[in-house]
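Follow-up to my post from last week.
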Amino acid sequence: MSQHRHPGAPGRAGAVPALPDLPEATVARLPEYLRALHNLAETGHETISSEGLANAAGVNSAKLRKDLSHLGSYGTRGVGYDVALLVEQIEYVLGLTQRRAVALVGVGNLGHALAGYDGFAGRGFRIAALFDADPRRIGEEINGLVVRHIDELPEVAAAEAVAIGVIATPAPAAQRVADQLVAVGVTSILNFAPCVLSVPEGVDVRKVDLAIELQILSFHEHRKAALTALPAAGGSALTALPGGFAVTESQEAIGT
Amino acid sequence: MSQHRHPGAPGRAGAVPALPDLPEATVARLPEYLRALHNLAETGHETISSEGLANAAGVNSAKLRKDLSHLGSYGTRGVGYDVALLVEQIEYVLGLTQRRAVALVGVGNLGHALAGYDGFAGRGFRIAALFDADPRRIGEEINGLVVRHIDELPEVAAAEAVAIGVIATPAPAAQRVADQLVAVGVTSILNFAPCVLSVPEGVDVRKVDLAIELQILSFHEHRKAALTALPAAGGSALTALPGGFAVTESQEAIGT
DNA sequence: CGCGATTTGTGCACGTCTTCACAAGCGCCT
DNA sequence: AGGCGCTTGTGAAGACGTGCACAAATCGCG
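User reply:
Got it. Predicted complex:
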């Protein structure tokens, strides 16, 4: 490789290929690749093939190569990818070269856990402040941070340059909190409340709903049970049949 | 509608249209529709148009109609959907007519929060048991459940008919736990540990990684900053340009 | 009873994502 | 130096998901 010195380095090196606009599906996978690469780096690998990285990240190797090709050509044919270089590239593209400040709103059950979760610091983020609306929670200290009242958001957000807001409140409070976050200039929100947020254009919202994940699993569980209960039936016959297949319900303990 | 009485009712009614195989994207949205429908039912709506439900669920109305059409025709033209009927249908398809037993492994920071989260009970699930490997945690009571040692998993899983496992352990322990869950017949796993699990075919794994969600947001944040910093530049010029656009980094507090 | 307003269900076209398969490139060994 | 094996990067094809736009169906009203 002719160019072994940071083709698109984050820091001061001039030649940044700016941001290619990546397919959204690719963006969603990059963090997984990054995690896998960090693991590989710790276990002493200096280079890794697409096959190897794909396995570590749980994806198809062709997909991985296409994903990485969108960032530019950082692999070497016959050898693989330089782990350190790739880490640097992905971190740059994801905007992780600076530690982003996160404001966490809602210090209930889940909020507590998030505030105490140490997985953030190691992955490019810093919880800058905790907020809640319940007076009884104000002043409480969690993991070295004091819980402040949500009305103090404007001052704190400005002082800490908060870029990302995390909502861990009950659903009824979430929209109001979202509005407050948007009002202080936050343009990215991670929403744990089970409700839809409406935000102005330009603000990104990602939603994580634990019950929804379980319900999706439940569907597949239901489906697997139905399939094992009707081993030979060829599908087509099932579509509109009125004859009762009440069986599908009873079968719960699966293959075992 | 000629057939207004539960065309594919869950319970004892015979004529179940079995499970149509839904597109995965549709399955992922059904829980959101379900939540919205429950809200609507509580606010007294008996019927709802695709437009109304789509708004409540945060999706396009055509998409919603197409999704629902996969379950069969449960709407009335000129009127809309019967809320109660639709709830029943979706709950049936998702396999929520029975309360599924969930085993939660790992009662650390996050596990504690999940164990205390009351959003599960109302949405079709029942946390049947808590497990951990740390002897200091065994015996602790959370939300009315006692933490047991992971080695007791086989007995408990059998007694409680556990169908779904939730892994909230640190990453290094996750694969081992997954193996143990699979060994006792669990075929659906929700994984909060930041690592890839390998499981036999037929076992479904869904992953939730908080840091990944933040990193995806970070990317968009990075991109938005880059765009506002280069308002007029027409994209094409940026692709390979060596001239330094170091600006892209500094711009943090967005629009506002 | 018929008509118009309303809303569902869907055919179609388009864009995105995935996967295969292979040429081009690279390093190593002889 | 040359050839061989390995791995990347990508063209092309197919699967999948989305959204428009409209025909078909239903209700309510005159």
